[in-house]
Amino acid sequence: MTPGHRGPSTAVATLSGAAFGAAAVLLGAGVVAADWPEGWAAVVCALVLAAVGTTVRAAGSRTEPAAGPEDAVRGDGPSLAKTTTTAPAAASRGRSSLVAVVVAWALAVLAGGIWAATSGGDEDERSGGGTAKGGPTASAKPTASASLDGRPAVAWTIPGVGQKYDRGVGSWGLGSAVVQGRIDGLFAYDAADGSVRWSVPAPTREALCGITPDVEEGIGLVAHGRHDKPCATLVAVRTSDGKVMWQRKLAGNGLVEGALAVGGTTAVTAEDGAVRARSTESGEQRWERKAPKGCEPLALDADATRTLLVEQCGKGARLLALDTRTGARRWTRDLPVESKATASVVSVSPAVVAVDEADARGTHAFLGFDDKGAPTVSVPLSGPEGVLSASGAVGDGRTVRPLVLDGLLITLAEHESMVPDRVVAYSLKDGRKAWTHDNEGQTMTLAAEPDGRVAYLGSDASVTLLDPATGKAATVLKPDVDKLPDISIEPELLPVPGGHVVLNQILMQSEPAAFALR
What is the DSSP string of 64-95? Predict the structure, then answer.
């Protein structure tokens, strides 16, 4: 090698020094932070150090001067045997060292590639990144592991509007938006930033007094009325842009509280002693069923094919299944009621209603029926698991709309306190308890996640996701903020892409009207 020319050994040594420095820094950081490299990080460090050592050794062997005549043993004469055998041996050692270097660095590079390809997932598992936003994922496998916990941020808030004790009427989840029925109108918030996409203000001196539980075919209905007057104005709203499709004035006593639903393209209402169905697009009446003499509607709900109607007739009550499109009666079932009752429809299919009658020894239960109206189960509103929550004014528990998922009735229970502190599920096949999930604090409301899990909101603004089959916690999402958002009584929880929106439907103090956890 000519003087001044830097050979391969010098370059290799330089690169090796750089790699050695990187590995040393990584190991040093582990010492300082008390967090040693794990998994592929540890493997890469070990292989880099090994490769550096091999490279340095190889570089040393390649820079040793080859044995020549001047290295021969001084003696009687020149030792040709040594000058002819030492050089090939050194070359052989150099080739072997070069092979070792290549192999060592190849292994280090391969391990580094695998580490780079998998480190994102490992980091997500350590930090809870896969669930921190609370978004539903189809591949999620619910477990009880605390490693799935996340710390979402409060992405946005909507200030409270109105007077103390103002009560909202309900909400709709639209995927990328949520709609809140406030006393002053209908407001659609963008789920990403909380901006108002559209609004349908209530007329002057009128307040919202009714809303459909869901929307169908992109249309939902609300009702409003004046102070101390019937809830007598019906409004159909297109949810994509807030356009009012039509408006109708209702006669007599107006809308029966909570008796407003949409099924497919049909709006069904219980109003002024009758059940009426209208086109959701035009408002044109499709059919009418007047209540028999001595009967009055108590509650109803509908889907595209079936409408369930609870009627009080004298001291008795009955459940009717009507064809949503035509109004034709499919079946009728007398309920085990002998006094004045309140009722709500929990599910249209399967048929589940909640009934609470005035007689203290009467029926106070969730009742299930098959597709022909035959009774299947009865779950008491109060029992060993506590006082169960139902929708509307039914029962003594908190007002919460129970969930019906995969053959289970799921609701909240007041078990060891005067507020709900338990989630409980009952089989709709035999009425037996399927599982319970206890919460250390207050359990505020329930929601069904798009991936099939059950979500509940805690009083600390946390959202816990449960495996619907077992009731075990799969994920706990608690806001990563010093001051938690205030939650009023009877809030609503709506899953949205990447998180959840909480709606405070009753204004108590300084609670926001809505806030998002993402």
Answer: SPPP-GGGSPPSSS--HHHHHHHHHHHHHHHH
- State both tokens at 70: 């001047």
Q: 203-239 pLDDT, tens per residue?
A: 999 999 999 999 999 999 999 999 999 999 999 999 9
Report the distance separating Cα 224 and Cα 257, nearest Å: 11
Kindly give, in sequence order, each residue whose CB lies less than 8 Å from that of residue 351, ignoring residues fewer than 6 positions away: 308, 319, 321, 368, 369, 370, 371, 373
3-state secondary structure 289-311: EECCCCEEEEEEEECCCEEEEEE
DSSP code of residue 251: P
- Distance from C-alpha of 208 to C-alpha of 210, rounded to nearest angstrom: 6
| Model confidence, pTM | 0.71
The DSSP line for 416-457 is SSSS--EEEEEETTT--EEEEEE-SS-EEEEEE-TTS-EEEE
Nearest CA to 270 among 244, 227, 323, 307?
307
pLDDT higher for 359 or 397?
359
Work out whether the CA dihedral 393, 391, 224, 496 comes out positive or negative: positive
